[in-house]
Write a structure and sequence with these properties.
Elements: E1 2-6, E2 29-35, H1 44-50, H2 64-72, E3 84-97, E4 103-115, E5 125-131, E6 133-145, E7 148-153, E8 160-163, E9 168-174, E10 183-193, E11 197-202, E12 209-219, E13 222-231, E14 235-236, E15 251-260, E16 263-273, E17 291-299, H3 309-317, H4 332-339, H5 348-362, E18 364-365, H6 376-382, E19 384-385, H7 387-400, E20 404-410, E21 430-437, E22 440-444, E23 463-467, E24 473-477, E25 483-494, E26 500-508, H8 510-522, H9 526-535, E27 541-550, E28 559-568, E29 572-576, E30 598-599, E31 603-613, E32 618-622, E33 627-632, E34 635-644, E35 649-658, E36 662-663, H10 668-682, E37 686-690
Parallel strand pairs: 1-5, 2-13, 3-12, 14-15, 18-19, 25-31
Antiparallel strand pairs: 3-4, 4-10, 5-9, 6-7, 6-10, 8-9, 11-17, 12-16, 13-17, 15-16, 20-21, 20-23, 21-22, 23-24, 25-26, 26-28, 27-28, 29-37, 30-36, 31-35, 32-37, 33-34, 34-35
Helix pairs in contact: 4-6, 4-7, 5-7
Length: about 700
C-alpha cells in the first residue's frame, strides 16, 4: 500500500500580510544545502546521459509516444532488478489567498509509475493522509496492446474520501487492471491553510525514479527557506524556453521569475535517482535519502520569523502555547508551593533528583503532545498534563529552587534529525529538560515513569538539539553519551552431578534497565522465556528452579534479576557452550556492501562471568583458547577461559566494550568482521567426557 504521509505540522501561527501593500519586493529564497558525499552520482552518469530514458520522461501531456515507449519497455538501465520505476513525478505548491483573504497552500501532484514485477502491484492502491482537503483525483492504467497501448480510466466510485479526524482527511483509490508491464498515471490536489511548513518532498524512495520535480509558487512578500538533505548541488538552469528534446542536467533548479507582478516561482528537478536500500541498524532511512523541505523564513509585516535557531528560540520562549509560562508570574507561585512539600537537602544533585522524582511519580501524563493550552496553576493543581506541561512544571520547580534549567527541543532518532544550519520545525517532536548543577549537566524526562534521574530514552540521543531561553543555544545529545551496561554473573552452588545447580545474577544499567522495565511490566513472563531460549544452545538440559526480579517498579535503583538453574549431565560426550548469555548471538550485518552509516542505540559495556564446578567423575578434554578482538582501544571483545583440573573449576570471563555508537560506512567492513569474530568466539565449546555410570 502506498502511504503518502502528508502531515506537515504547523508549529507557529503565521501573521498574514495585510492587503493593499504596494511595497516592491524582490524574490528572496534562502538556499540551505547539506553537502553529503553521494555515491549515487558516479562517473557512469556521463554514459547514462548518452542513452538516457529521460528524453521520454517529460513533455507527455497528450503525448502518445511517451506511453507507447514505456509500455514496450521491460527493463531500465537505472536499476535492472527494480519491481517498479517512477517515470515521472511532479509536485506544484502554490501559496495564494482564498475568497476569505486567507493564505492557503494548494498542492498538485502527478505520478507516473511503470510496473515491472507483481511485487509492485500494491502501487495501484493509493492511500493519502493530509491536513486539509483532497480533491480532483484522476487516474488511469495504460496496458500493452500490440505495438500500442490501451488506456483504462479509473471509475469515480473507486475514490473514497473521509475525515480521519477533525484536521486530517483520508483519501483512497485503486487504479484498475494492474498487470506486469502496465503504466499507472494518477493526479490529485490538496489544499490547506498556510503553515510554517510549505513543502516536504521525498526525492529518493523505495523505487528508482527517472525524473522528480517540485515547483513552489509564492508571493514576493514571503521569504522561504529550502533545506536540501543528502542531495547533490542543484545547478542553475532555465528550461522554460527549451525544445522538448533538449537534454538537461541531472539536477538543476530554475531561476526565480515573475509570471505576474510580485509573484515568483522556483523549480527543482532531479533525474536518474536510485532507489533507497533498507539496511539494518539504521533508525530512520529517510535521514539518508535525498529530500527537499521548504518552509517560511519570514513574511513582510509579520511578527514572526524563523530564519534561524535564535529567532525560533525567541518565538517559543515567549509564546504561551510553548514556554511562555516560564516567564515571571507564569508558574513560579505554584512551583513554590510544590517545593514546600519536599524536604530540602544540602546535596544539590540529590535535591534536584527529588524534584524530578516528584514530577515523574506524582503527575499523570495525558498525552505526549507538544504545545499546551493550560496554565501551570491548573497543571500543579491537577497534577496532570501533556509532555510540555510536565517539563514546564519540572523547570519551574527547578528554577524556583535556584537551579539553571531550560527546555530542550529535539527530534527523536526514528524521526528526521534536526539540522544545525536551519530549524526545520516540522521535525521537532520531543522535549526534554536540561539541568546544570555547578559544572555538571543532566538531561531529564519526567514523562517516562521508568527513567531515572539524568537518563533519557535511547531515541532522544539524536545529535543536534536546541535549548530554549531568551537567546537559545545548541546542545549535542549523542548516543555515545549513554552506555548500555549489563553485568551477568553465574556461579555453581551445588556441584553434584545429579543436582548440579547454578545461581545467575544480572544487574542492568540505567538504559537497559529502562528498556527491560518497559517490557517486563507489560509481560512478566517474557524474560523467563528469553532465559530458556538462551539455554537451549548450551549443550546441557536445563531447568529453571527459582526466578526473581528486584526493583522492577523503582527506576532510581538498579534492576536486578536472579535465577537458579539445574543442569542434567548426559553420559558420554558433552559439547558445552560456556557463554550461555550472549549479548549478540547473530551478527545483524550481513551484506558485503554498506550504503549508510551503522547506528547503535548507545555505547555498550557488557560483562559476563562464569565459575562452574565440573562434577566429579567427569573429564574436561578440550577448552578453547582465550582471545581478544579489537576495532581499536575503545571498541573490543575480550574472551578469557581456563580450566583447573586441581579445583575442577571452569572459569570464563567476557567483556564487550563498544564506546562508539555511530560508524561511518567507511568503517563498515572492520565492524562487520569484528562482530563476525565475536559471534564466532561466543559459540566456542568445551568438550567434556562423562564416564559416570
Amino acid at each position: 500500500m502506498v502511504r503518502l504521509l502528508l502531515l506537515g505540522i504547523a508549529v507557529f501561527k503565521v501573521v498574514m500580510v495585510k492587503d493593499g501593500s504596494t511595497e516592491s519586493i524582490l524574490p528572496e529564497f534562502i538556499i540551505i544545502l547539506k553537502p553529503v558525499e553521494m555515491q549515487r552520482v558516479l562517473l557512469c552518469c556521463l554514459l547514462i546521459l548518452l542513452f538516457s530514458d529521460l528524453c521520454w520522461s517529460k513533455n507527455f501531456e497528450g503525448n502518445a509516444a511517451f506511453f507507447e515507449y514505456h509500455i514496450q519497455k521491460s527493463k531500465y538501465e537505472l536499476d535492472t532488478n527494480a519491481s517498479a520505476i517512477v517515470l515521472y513525478e511532479n509536485a506544484i505548491y502554490t501559496i495564494d489567498k482564498d475568497v476569505y483573504n486567507k493564505f492557503t497552500i494548494t498542492r498538485k501532484i502527478r505520478r507516473i509509475v511503470k510496473i515491472l514485477h507483481k511485487d509492485a502491484f500494491d502501487e495501484a492502491d493509493v492511500q493519502l493522509f493530509v491536513i486539509g482537503s483532497i480533491g480532483k483525483i484522476e487516474a488511469a492504467t495504460y496496458l500493452k496492446d500490440g505495438t500500442s497501448y490501451l488506456k483504462k480510466d479509473m471509475p469515480a466510485e473507486s475514490i473514497k474520501i473521509t475525515k480521519a479526524n477533525e484536521f486530517v482527511t483520508e483519501g483512497k483509490f485503486s487504479l484498475p487492471s494492474v498487470a506486469v508491464g502496465c503504466v499507472l498515471d494518477y493526479t490529485y490536489e490538496t489544499k490547506k491553510d498556510l503553515s510554517t511548513v510549505v513543502a516536504e518532498w521525498d526525492i529518493q524512495e523505495g523505487f528508482p525514479k527517472l525524473c522528480s520535480e517540485i515547483v513552489i509558487n509564492y508571493p514576493g512578500t514571503i521569504k522561504l527557506a529550502l533545506v536540501g538533505e543528502n542531495g547533490v548541488d542543484f545547478e542553475s538552469f532555465d528550461d522554460s524556453r527549451l525544445d522538448p528534446s533538449t537534454r538537461t542536467p541531472f539536477s538543476y533548479s530554475t531561476p526565480g521569475f515573475s509570471p505576474s507582478a510580485g509573484y515568483f516561482s522556483k523549480k527543482w528537478v532531479r533525474k536518474e535517482i536510485t532507489a533507497h536500500v533498507s539496511e539494518p541498524l539504521v533508525y530512520n532511512p529517510r535521514n539518508y535519502c535525498e529530500r527537499i523541505e521548504v518552509q517560511i523564513a519570514s513574511m513582510r509585516n509579520s511578527a514572526h520569523g524563523i530564519s534561524g535557531w535564535k529567532e525560533l528560540s525567541k518565538n517559543v520562549s515567549g509564546n504561551p502555547i510553548f514556554f511562555g509560562n516560564l516567564k515571571p508570574n507564569g508558574g513560579f507561585r505554584p512551583a513554590k508551593l510544590a517545593l514546600s512539600n519536599l524536604p530540602e537537602v544540602d546535596d544539590k544533585v540529590l535535591f534536584a533528583s527529588k524534584i524530578f522524582s516528584y514530577v515523574r511519580d506524582s503527575f499523570t501524563l495525558i498525552k505526549e503532545s507538544l504545545g499546551t493550552t493550560r496554565d501551570l496553576n491548573w497543571v500543579f493543581r491537577n497534577r496532570s498534563g501533556n509532555a510540555t506541561d510536565f517539563h514546564l512544571a519540572l523547570i519551574s520547580m527547578l528554577r524556583e529552587a535556584g537551579f539553571n534549567a531550560d527546555p530542550v527541543m529535539l527530534s527523536t532518532r526514528n524521526n528526521l534529525r534536526l539540522m544545525e544550519i536551519h530549524p526545520v520545525i516540522s521535525r521537532i517532536n520531543y522535549i526534554v529538560t536540561r539541568l546544570q548543577v555547578a559544572d555538571e549537566f543532566f538531561y531529564l524526562d519526567p514523562t517516562q515513569k521508568n527513567l531515572s534521574f539524568g537518563t533519557l530514552s535511547p531515541g532522544c540521543y539524536s545529535g543536534f538539539a536546541w535549548a530554549v531561553n531568551d537567546s537559545g543555544y545548541a546542545v549535542q545529545l549523542l548516543p555515545e553519551g549513554i552506555k548500555d551496561k549489563l553485568t551477568v554473573q553465574a556461579r555453581t552452588v551445588n556441584a553434584d552431578s545429579t543436582s548440579h545447580t547454578l545461581n545467575v545474577r544480572a544487574v542492568y544499567g540505567r538504559l537497559s534497565g529502562f528498556e527491560r522495565r518497559n517490557e517486563w511490566q507489560k509481560d512478566s513472563l517474557s524474560h523467563r522465556k528469553e532465559i530458556m531460549m538462551d539455554l537451549k544452545g548450551n549443550g546441557l538440559e536445563s531447568k529453571l528452579l527459582h526466578y526473581a526480579i528486584h526493583n522492577l517498579h523503582n527506576p532510581d535503583t538498579s534492576l536486578i534479576v536472579e535465577y537458579q538453574l539445574k543442569f542434567s549431565w548426559p553420559r558420554g560426550h558433552i559439547v558445552f557452550v560456556p557463554t550461555f548469555y550472549q549479548y549478540m548471538g547473530v551478527n545483524p550485518l550481513k551484506s558485503t556492501v554498506r550504503l549508510n552509516p551503522v547506528e547503535l542505540a548507545s555505547a555498550i559495556d557488557v560483562n559476563y562471568s562464569l565459575m562452574m564446578e565440573i562434577p566429579k567423575g567427569m573429564h574436561v578434554r578440550e577448552v578453547p583458547a582465550s582471545t581478544m578482538s579489537k576495532l581499536d582501544d575503545r571498541n573490543y571483545y575480550k574472551y578469557f577461559i581456563e580450566y583447573s583440573e586441581e579445583s575442577g573449576k571452569l572459569i570464563a570471563n567476557t567483556r564487550l566494550s563498544l564506546q562508539n555508537a555511530f560508524y561511518e560506512k567507511e568503517f563498515y567492513q572492520p565492524l562487520k568482521l569484528f562482530l563476525d569474530k565475536m559471534v564466532e568466539t561466543q559459540q566456542q565449546t568445551v568438550i567434556i567426557e562423562n564416564k559416570q555410570l
